[in-house]
Structure formats: structure tokens, C-alpha cells
């Protein structure tokens, strides 16, 4: 090497990257998630990483989080990329996609989308600048049946269970319950209360009390009632009776309780404790209009949500003059995965996907080794052929270090049999590449 200055290799904060053995697990998770989405009839779409800024900012919620796009060597006066940005979630691009392809889609349109997103926020545990989201949404013209409000958390439940994620619960609420309850208390700004109540897990009861009084001017009686509602939990539709016992009434509250009860009844066959009606869940974004979801780890209650979403009135309305309500839920793959990795809850082993390493006896037997590997690949195995005629011990150590479970020995001499070594047991037996089956 010359005397040029070396650039110190270091990861960029908030942009996670994994070693091969960890990435293999993440890929398997992604495969499981996609298969689950498809089992329920959701179809895959992928939108560009980049959207026009007016699309990204159509809802005006996260303008401070958007990374804009500009070429480093852009010519003076060249602002062609100045109105482009990286998408910060998958919902806004999906709304644009539906509006753009409206005449080509079959409704209700059930889509899933698994992509990376980018947010310009301060990195901390559970929050990243680049991460993978796994979204499913159902969008329809004029009305989305309430059935889907129950189907989406059922799918998320199936995925989290199948992946073996440690103890968690999917918490469910309904914005109509909150808005109807606050309206029944005579509060003029129910959405303002929702935005403050959504901070309950961050600033605590005292912080919420202070904000409700100082920001919205609520009376002590109203504040007490709001907090009494927020502390209600339940595992079934009986939670509606607990809410009614607070003595507040309104038509919107009744509508929300009916919807919440329907969803809980539909999910009543799932294991106790996995689906919880939690009246503190508010989801502060204004576009939610009904059911809302927030999944949390049981053992790490202060950690961010691991899945979230809800029903919205018309996200595509900014792009097309049609009423297109929807309901969606997002699984925060990177947030879940990174936490389990940090806690030592991921069992890593092999650092490559190979099932078999075919050794190279010597350069004269290279064709035999290559043909053996081809036969095994044709039968569905992932197979490496060792790259040069090193000592046999070195080739076996290579397989051991990479976690390759089987080492295949093609004939070292004409007329000799093939042999395969089980690296776990140490057993080595004769084998035929056309008929051998992995134990």
C-alpha cells in the first residue's frame, strides 16, 4: 500500500448492519413474514425509495424527519433533485400508489410491502435512521368492512408467534371511544387530548395531567375522567362495561364501543394476554379514525412499539377525488430484531447458507468435484466447492468455521466411493450424490 491516508471504518449511527450469521436469521424472518402475508391473500407491491417532497409532505406530519435528495456534484442551478426525498414510512407512498393505479386495482385492495425506510431523527435504542418495515393494508372505495380490523392483528399475532418473539401483547383501542368519551365530558378539543394522552408512557400520569390543564384548560374533574379511561385494560369485550361505568355518554362513544367489542370478540380464540384492550393507546397521528394498534414487549415495557397501525379515513384523498378509507398494521422488523440481538435472544450458528462443502482432492479431480456439487445442487441443496487444492485439514476447518454442517468427499481415486462427513456428530459414511438425504 502507498502512503495515502486510511479512512477509519466505522458504522454510521442509526444505520444498523449485521454480520453474515445474523443477516441469515433476518432473511429467514423476512421469508416467514412474507409467507404469512400471502397466506391471507395479500399481494406484494414495492414503491421507489424516493418520492416527490409534495407527496411525502401531503399529510404534514413528519417534515422534520425527511431526508432530501441532492447530487454531491450537482451543477449550479441544477435543482432537478431538490424536490425529492427518501420515504419515511410506507403508508404515504402506498396512498400515492393506489391513487396512481386506481383503475388497475381490484378492491378491497390487500397489499403488503416490505422495504427500508429512512427518518432523520436522533438515534437511540429502538429508533433508527434506516430500518425495515413490514406493512399490510386493506384499502377500499367508500367503506372498509370492520372484519379487516380484526384480521390484521390476527396476522401480526401469527407472525410474532411463528418467529418465537419473547413475550409481547398487541394492544387495541378505538379512536371513536376516545373522541366520544372526551366529547361526552364537554371537551372542545378531543384531538388535542388524544395527542397529549398518547404521551402517557413517556411523561407519565403527572406529565399528562399538567399538559391537559395548562395546554387545553381542562378542569380537574375532566382530567380525572380522562385518566380513569386511560387506565382501563381488558382481554375481552367486557371492557366496554368498564368504560360505561365511568358514566360518560355520547353517540360516538357507543359507536366506538361497538366496534371495539366486535374486534375483541373476533380475536377471542387467541391465547389470553396476547390481545389486550388498552384505553391508553391513542396513536397521536390525526389521520386515525377508528381501531388503533400498538404491540409491545412485556419484559421491556419502556421499549418502543414493535407493531402499530390503525384505521384511517382517506389517506389517498390528497391524490385522487375518491373516498378511499383503509386499515393497516406495520411490524417493526428492525426494532424487534435489534432488541433481541442486543439481549442475546437470537441463536446464531452458520455464517453462510451452505448445506454442504465439497472438498477438492487435487487439481486433477476438479471436474469430479464440480460435477458432484452440481448433482447435489440439482437436488435442492446449497453447495460450495472448495476453491483450491489445499490440505484436507484446512478445507475441513473452513467448513467448521463457516458452520457448514456436511463435508462431501468425492472419490480421491478412480473406483473409490463418495463419502460425507456429519460435522456435528463426526460420523463419516459412504454416500451417493444422487440418493443421499440430509439426516
UniProtKB/TrEMBL annotation:
This is Histidine--tRNA ligase. It comes from Protofrankia coriariae. PROSITE patterns: AA_TRNA_LIGASE_II (PS50862). The keyword Metal-binding does not apply. Its EC number is 6.1.1.21. Residues 33-361 form the Aminoacyl-transfer RNA synthetases class-II family profile domain. InterPro entries: aa-tRNA-synth_II, aa-tRNA-synth_II/BPL/LPL, Anticodon-bd, Anticodon-bd_dom_sf, His-tRNA-ligase, HisRS-like_core, HisRS/HisZ. NCBIfam families: hisS (TIGR00442). It catalyses: tRNA(His) + L-histidine + ATP = L-histidyl-tRNA(His) + AMP + diphosphate + H(+). Belongs to the class-II aminoacyl-tRNA synthetase family. The lineage of its organism: Bacteria, Bacillati, Actinomycetota, Actinomycetes, Frankiales. It is an enzyme of class 6 (ligase). It comes from the Bacteria.
Amino acid at each position: 500500500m502507498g502512503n495515502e491516508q486510511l479512512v477509519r471504518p466505522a458504522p454510521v449511527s442509526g444505520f444498523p448492519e449485521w454480520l453474515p450469521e445474523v443477516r441469515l436469521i433476518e432473511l429467514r424472518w423476512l421469508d416467514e413474514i412474507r409467507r404469512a402475508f400471502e397466506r391471507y391473500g395479500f399481494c406484494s407491491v414495492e414503491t421507489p425509495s424516493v418520492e416527490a417532497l409534495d407527496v411525502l409532505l401531503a399529510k404534514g406530519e413528519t417534515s422534520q424527519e425527511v431526508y432530501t435528495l441532492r447530487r454531491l456534484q450537482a451543477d449550479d442551478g441544477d435543482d432537478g433533485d431538490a424536490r425529492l426525498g427518501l420515504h419515511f414510512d410506507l403508508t404515504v407512498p402506498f396512498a400515492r400508489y393506489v391513487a396512481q393505479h386506481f383503475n388497475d386495482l381490484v378492491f378491497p385492495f390487500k397489499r403488503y410491502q416490505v422495504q427500508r425506510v429512512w427518518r432523520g431523527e436522533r438515534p437511540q435504542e429502538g429508533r433508527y435512521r434506516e430500518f425495515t418495515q413490514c406493512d399490510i393494508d386493506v384499502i377500499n372505495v367508500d367503506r372498509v368492512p370492520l372484519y379487516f380490523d380484526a384480521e390484521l392483528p390476527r396476522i401480526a399475532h401469527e407472525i410474532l408467534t411463528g418467529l418465537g418473539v419473547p413475550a409481547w401483547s398487541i394492544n387495541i383501542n378505538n379512536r371513536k371511544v376516545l373522541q366520544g368519551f372526551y366529547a361526552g365530558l364537554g371537551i372542545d378539543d378531543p384531538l388535542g387530548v388524544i395527542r397529549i394522552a398518547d404521551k402517557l408512557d413517556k411523561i407519565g400520569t403527572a406529565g399528562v395531567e399538567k399538559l391537559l390543564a395548562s395546554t387545553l384548560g381542562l378542569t380537574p374533574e375532566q382530567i380525572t375522567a380522562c385518566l380513569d379511561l386511560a387506565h382501563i385494560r381488558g382481554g375481552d369485550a367486557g371492557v366496554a362495561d368498564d368504560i360505561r361505568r365511568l358514566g360518560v355518554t355520547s353517540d360516538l362513544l357507543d359507536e366506538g364501543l361497538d366496534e371495539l367489542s366486535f374486534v375483541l370478540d373476533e380475536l377471542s380464540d387467541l391465547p389470553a394476554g396476547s390481545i389486550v384492550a388498552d384505553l391508553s393507546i391513542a396513536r397521536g397521528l390525526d389521520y386515525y379514525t377508528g381501531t388503533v394498534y400498538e404491540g409491545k414487549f412485556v419484559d421491556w415495557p419502556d421499549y418502543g412499539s414493535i407493531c402499530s397501525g390503525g384505521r384511517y379515513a382517506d389517506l389517498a384523498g390528497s391524490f385522487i377525488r375518491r373516498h378511499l378509507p383503509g386499515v393497516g398494521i406495520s411490524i417493526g422488523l428492525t426494532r424487534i430484531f435489534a432488541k433481541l440481538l442486543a439481549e442475546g435472544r437470537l441463536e446464531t450458528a452458520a455464517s453462510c447458507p451452505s448445506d454442504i462443502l465439497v472438498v477438492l482432492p487435487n487439481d486433477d479431480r476438479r471436474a469430479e468435484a464440480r460435477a458432484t456439487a452440481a448433482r447435489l445442487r440439482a437436488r435442492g441443496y446449497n453447495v460450495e466447492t472448495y476453491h483450491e487444492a489445499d490440505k484436507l485439514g484446512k478445507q475441513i476447518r473452513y467448513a467448521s468455521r463457516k458452520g457448514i454442517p456436511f463435508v462431501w468427499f468425492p472419490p480421491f481415486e478412480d473406483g473409490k466411493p463418495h463419502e460425507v462427513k456429519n460435522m456435528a456428530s463426526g460420523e463419516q459414511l459412504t454416500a451417493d450424490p444422487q440418493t443421499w438425504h440430509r439426516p
